Amino acid sequence: MKRYVYINDDESSHDLYCDNRISNRKYTLLNFLPKNLWEQFSRLMNQYFLLIACLQLWSLITPVNPASTWGPLIFIFFVSATKEAWDDYNRYISDKKANEKEVWVVRQGIRKLVRAQNIQVGNIVWIQENDEVPCDLVLLGTSDPQGVCYIETAALDGETDLKTRVISPACMGIDYELLHKIKGVIECPGPDRDIRRFDANLRLFPPFLDNDLCPLTIKNTILQSCYLRNTEWACGVAIYTGNETKLGMSRGIPKPKLTAVDAIIDKLTGAIFVFQIVVVIVLGIAGNVWKDTEARRVSLDLVKSLYAKFIDWDYKMIDRETGTPSHATNTAISEDLGQVEYILTDKTGTLTENKMIFRRCCINGVFYGSESGDALKDVELVDAVSSGSADVVLFLTVMAICNTVIPMKSKTGDILYKAQSQDEDALVRAAAQLHLVFFNKNANILEIKFNASTIQYEVLETLEFTSDRKKMSVVVKDCRNGRIHLFSKGADEAILPNACSGQKTRVFIEAVEQYTQLGLRTLCLACRELNEDEYQEWSFLFKEASSTLVDREWRIAEVCQRLEHDLEILGVTAIEDHLQDGVPETIETLRKAGINFWMLTGDKQNTATQIALSCNFISPEPKGQLLSIDGKTEDEVSRSLERVLLTMRITTSEPKDVAFVVDGWALEIALKYYRNAFTELAILTRTAICCRVTPSQKAQELSVCSIVEDDLILLIIVSMERKK
């Protein structure tokens, strides 16, 4: 269902959409007692105790005083209800603080301070640096002349890298004094929980823009609970408020947490009840075994709260860089930390430091950095740059500008780079160290400096990276001669198959294999020159695809593929990402404790395998054995899966450390057609490596592991705020 948001119109959206009041509370004063009792009696154990207590009201069949049963039972419920009330009160305090926070909002053409809960859809909201975003906004302006701002999305997706957001082209150039007077309409979809997608269109009313339609994407938004960083101010129009924000739609209604211990107690209670029925029928007497568990149940609720406090009080569990201590946000499931059986972990930023260093490269078949291990110190490469080698300069140019990096000057005059990706940051810095410096970006004009001369490129289009495309491209015009170029970088399987006919790619394939054997991250760089007519025809299709509200992502990918072909492969880069301190020792200790590990990564198989060996996930031969599941068709994957499964069944009784590795393509087929066999394999193995997987496949992996055993406990370490 579409939504039309009228910008800066105080009347049109006031009654159509909800206000910005957020509520994470589970109870109200009126429904607390019945709702809490319903939740407590939804547990089999409490139903059992209630049945016993009711039976003891019948004096003919019980020799004990009913007060001796009802008293402890009421006390048990009182303790549980008190704990739930305290947790809900803390949620209320948190909501109240967020709702009553004052923010700047434009009302009747004037900026006013209002409470966050009073923000309405269509209001223009202003936020300052380090402020939390109060609702979902479409950016209209920022303090940066290029319309860029930086946000921290850790509360949304757990990622600590700053992300770049930019105002739409329609709002470029609007003066600061006029931002609060903007009028227009945004056509967007109804509220949803997808934080990575926003397909909408913006139309500003005269005099700002004469009804031109401008497409909007997630890059033009800042979502609720994000923080504005490294940007003095930003303003935007509220499109989703309150519980209709993307975070609010994902939040849902708090549900009772049931730990593994609680589940076991429920099962044991059910077994006890069945046993008692059998005893009654066979022996004719009533069992009264509940007394043995009465004190234990009260202790569990009290101890759960104490567990959570011990976590808060542990001075060793602290982020030493920021001074942030640990905090248990839920008191109901803390004992599950002692029940962990499986750890699912990402690689980049979790096992590794996420501090990328440019190490080696292959340019037009020539390998640099192989001897010293550092291409930036390779004399051959330095000489090639100094002599102005055309191949090397073009390679460095693609490294420098095929990205979304923003250069900024510090107070001392040094150039600082703001990048969403650490890989892009490493490539731009490496190019700068080789004297090709990306030093300025003004709107769509990029400026690079090489050997004392300044070169300008105009960015015509940016074809953004997606996990499905596995590459990104920019279409630029060389301001010196007017030629249009397509610069691309991405995974080898996304770039090399699109090489122009006649170009030999074997040397680049060998470079990729060599670098991945060393555990380095690889990217292939390519380019293509476009003629004016071809670009104009393609640009029309691209803008049309970018403006559609139905299947926009799929249509954009299809149009991009029309341009990203017949590429001239320039070379391969290799980037190193160091392991974090103590990772191998920690993993070895956890494995000795019987915990199983799964590593889910988007890297190539060789890179993932080398990292797994370095982290002590798997043991080298002959102590360990790594089995591979591969294939491009159902039959190939089926045969490979059966072979690995047979080997795993045989070796389960041996002391040998056996693990398996599967790539994204084979994993997709296995999860779709051979889920039962893959689940059996997941039970048998202690270590698994899933490489070349997309975020959606990682989510499917979680669903597979969650059904491995009924009482399986998972600890997921994917993009946590501190990853050590």
Walk me through this protein's architecture:
By secondary structure, the chain is α+β, with helices and mostly antiparallel strands. Helix 9 (390-401) runs antiparallel to helix 10 and helix 17 runs parallel beside helix 19 (675-684). Mean pLDDT is 83; it is low at 285-296 and 707-724.
Main features:
disordered C terminus; alpha+beta; 26% strand; transmembrane helix; nine-stranded antiparallel β-sheet; 724 residues; single chain; globular
How would you summarize the topology of this molecule?
Elements: E1 2-7, H1 32-41, H2 44-55, H3 67-99, E2 102-107, E3 110-115, E4 124-128, E5 136-142, E6 148-152, H4 154-157, E7 163-166, E8 184-189, E9 200-204, E10 213-216, E11 221-222, E12 227-229, E13 233-240, H5 246-251, H6 260-283, H7 291-313, E14 318-319, E15 324-325, E16 342-345, E17 352-363, E18 366-368, H8 379-386, H9 390-401, E19 406-409, E20 415-418, H10 422-433, E21 436-442, E22 445-450, E23 453-463, E24 471-478, E25 484-490, H11 492-495, H12 506-517, E26 521-530, H13 532-547, H14 552-561, E27 568-579, H15 583-592, E28 596-600, H16 605-614, E29 624-629, H17 634-651, E30 657-663, H18 664-673, H19 675-684, E31 687-691, H20 695-706, E32 714-717
Parallel strand pairs: 16-28, 16-32, 28-31, 29-30, 30-31
Antiparallel strand pairs: 1-8, 2-3, 2-4, 4-13, 5-11, 5-13, 6-7, 6-12, 8-9, 9-10, 14-15, 17-18, 17-27, 19-20, 21-22, 22-23, 23-24, 24-25, 25-26, 26-27
